[in-house]
C-alpha cells in the first residue's frame, strides 16, 4: 500500500487572493527567514538520504508510483505522485513545471541501468531526482528569502550567494566560478554580455546538473544495485553491464555543456 500522502501544494493567490495579498505574504515570509513553515514537511515528500528510514520510504514511494510494476517510473506517474506529497511552497506557482524539469535533468545526467526511454527512470535515478529537488528548494529558499519581490529574475548577486552552498554540496566547478562569477553567471544562466538577469529555474538547473555529475560519481552503488535487481526481473535483455554504467553519461555534460 502507498504511504500516507503529505499535504498537497496549491497555487499561491488561488481563492481570491490578489497581487497585494501575495506581496504581503511574501514579505512576511522573508521576515521569518525561511521558505517553508518547517523544513521537515519537505523531508517525507523527498526522502533522498542514505539512512535506513529514507531508503525505506523511498522504496515505498517507488513501488507506489510504479503502477504497472515494471521496475521503472513513468514521468507522468512520478510527477503526479510527488506533486501530491509536496507541502505548500510559498511563491511556487506551478510545481509541475519544476518536477518535469527535474525529471528531465536527472535522466539526461545520471546514466540509466537499462535503456527504457527518456520518459522513464529507474530506482537509482529516482533517488537522484529526489536529491535534485531537495537542493533545488534549498536554492529557491535562499533566492526568495533574499528578495521576496514576486516574479523577479535571478541576477549575479544571487549566483554569488549560491556559491557557498554549491561548494558545500561538492560541485567541483565552484572555485573556477568564484574566480570570475560574472562570467560564470552569464554562461550558466545564458544572460549574455553584461550579466543580464535570467529566470531562476534556468540558473538553478544549470548549477544542479553539474552537482548531479559529482553526486553520481561519488555514489556508494547500493541504490544502483537495487535498480539492477529490479530491472533484471522485468527487462533482463536490456539491463546494462556495470562496465557500461561506469562510463558515465554520454550527453556531453561532463565537459560542461548543459542540455535543455
UniProtKB/TrEMBL annotation:
Residues 1-22, 239-260 are annotated as: Disordered. InterPro entries: FCABP_EF-hand. Residues 45-133 form the Flagellar calcium-binding protein EF-hand domain. Residues 245-260 have a biased composition (Low complexity). Residues 1-10 have a biased composition (Basic residues). It comes from the Eukaryota. Residues 12-21 have a biased composition (Gly residues). This is Flagellar calcium-binding protein EF-hand domain-containing protein. It comes from Zooxanthella nutricula. The lineage of its organism: Eukaryota, Sar, Alveolata, Dinophyceae, Peridiniales.
Amino acid at each position: 500500500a502507498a504511504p500516507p500522502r503529505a499535504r498537497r501544494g496549491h497555487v499561491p493567490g488561488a481563492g481570491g487572493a490578489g497581487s497585494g495579498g501575495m506581496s504581503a505574504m511574501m514579505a512576511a515570509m522573508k521576515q521569518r527567514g525561511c521558505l517553508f513553515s518547517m523544513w521537515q514537511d519537505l523531508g517525507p515528500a523527498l526522502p533522498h538520504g542514505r539512512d535506513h528510514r529514507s531508503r525505506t520510504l523511498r522504496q515505498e514511494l517507488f513501488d507506489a508510483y510504479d503502477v504497472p510494476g515494471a521496475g521503472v517510473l513513468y514521468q507522468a506517474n512520478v510527477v503526479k505522485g510527488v506533486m501530491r506529497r509536496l507541502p505548500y511552497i510559498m511563491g511556487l506557482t506551478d510545481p509541475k513545471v519544476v518536477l518535469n524539469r527535474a525529471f528531465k535533468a536527472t535522466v539526461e545526467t545520471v546514466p540509466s541501468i537499462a535503456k527504457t526511454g527518456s520518459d522513464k527512470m529507474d530506482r537509482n535515478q529516482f533517488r537522484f531526482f529526489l536529491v535534485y529537488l531537495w537542493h533545488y528548494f534549498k536554492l529557491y529558499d535562499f533566492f526568495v528569502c533574499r528578495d521576496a519581490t514576486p516574479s523577479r529574475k535571478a541576477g549575479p548577486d544571487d549566483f554569488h550567494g549560491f556559491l557557498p552552498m554549491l561548494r558545500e554540496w561538492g560541485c567541483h566547478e565552484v572555485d573556477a566560478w568564484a574566480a570570475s562569477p560574472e562570467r560564470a553567471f552569464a554562461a550558466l544562466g545564458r544572460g549574455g554580455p553584461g550579466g543580464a538577469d535570467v529566470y531562476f529555474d534556468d540558473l538553478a538547473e544549470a548549477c544542479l546538473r553539474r552537482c548531479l555529475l559529482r553526486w553520481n560519481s561519488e555514489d556508494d552503488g547500493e541504490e544502483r544495485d537495487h535498480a539492477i535487481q529490479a530491472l533484471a526481473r522485468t527487462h533482463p535483455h536490456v539491463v546494462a553491464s556495470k562496465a557500461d554504467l561506469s562510463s558515465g553519461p554520454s550527453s556531453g555534460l561532463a565537459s560542461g555543456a548543459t542540455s535543455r
